[in-house]
Amino acid sequence: HNPLKYIETGGNSTWFLPSVDPKTARKKWISSLKPQGALHVDAGALKALMAGKSLLPAGVTEISGDFARGELVRILAEDGRDLGCGLVGFDSAEAQKILGCRTSEIEEKLGYASRGALIHRDDMVL
To answer: What is the pTM of this model?
Structure first.
């Protein structure tokens, strides 16, 4: 009737520990989703991504697909190479409006303030 008290007093028990840390589990979950679109990035964005940075609108050259905020999109290099994927912070219509923009220009283009990243590094798998 009191399992925690039983364990505290030295009763027999079995512990099941996770095989991966939460961050790794989240990345696995992200990469298991079906992509709803794609973002093509320039060489500068590619370099930033490889350094562990978030994907900003300034480095995106093309957007394809119809996606909602929070859905998975592929990240593609200029030559079409698949770099990875991530959960996008804007829907496809908003992303199209801020394509190539600096972070400081987003509020003017969309009419509201935002976090700035199209895909935050914590929501990305490369």
So the answer is: 0.81
